[in-house]
Amino acid sequence: MSAVAAAAIRRPRRPGRRKITNRTLLYLALVFYLAIAVFPLYWMFMAAFKEDVDLIDPGVSPFWFKRPLSLAHFDVLFRHTNFLTWYSNTYVIAAAVLVITLLICVPGAYALARLRMPGGEHFAIGLFLTYLIPPTLLFLPMSQIISGGLGLGNNKWALVLVYPTFTVPFCLWLMLGFFKRVPFEIEEAAQVDGCNRWQAVLHVVLPVSVPGILTTAIFAFTLAMQDFVYALTFTSSSSQQPLNVGIPASLIRGDIYFWGELMAAALLAGVPVAILYNFFLDYFVEGITGGALKN
Superfamily for 80-294? Predict the structure, then answer.
């Protein structure tokens, strides 16, 4: 009897029907969301590499191709448009905005989170509320200041001055929440060990806040890349335009859409950003959830 009981104990338990059902539903949900996430990339890939005949032929499935795939759309994009100029303009503008945003947001968020000043919390809330003002209300007065006052009309550097007006409020609020997560005790311990405030910030607070800083950098970079209203307002010549204005201005002519070139440009513009997000994914998730939970 004891041997039978021991064998029953050693026998591995089979997973219950409810557990199998839950796991199956979980995998089905993951497949569903994965399909939603991958489908736009697949559609861009197929449209970018298909020939024009396959794109307009009703007998060809939009999800597949009939004739061999081709690089003709990329050839048109690089040879007959200013795509490389738009591409470089976009990354130069985004990089400059990123630097300006970090230079303002890191010390500003630290001051609001650490220094006890009257009305500091209300100031932070008011600054964040400026982010909620739609660009359609601001581009006219900003156009008068940038073009009339500074003489930067039709200049990509005007965007470097304009974009921080919406990247700084949001990123400052994000960094504020993350700095509040850093315990006061480690900074005080550094000061007890002989560091002044600047040294404590540089050697203790900032290394601990790397996920928050990277999250802020990613947001500032992508916010600067995806704007359309300001870019359309302050740049008119093709040599000064970023991707999100140059592509539709050159590849959409009235009711004629160059779908192959549009999808090729979208693929080349979107893939580097997706790789950037995935490369810093762990830091990004830690930073965004940390700031959100603290706020």
Answer: MetI-like (1.10.3720.10)
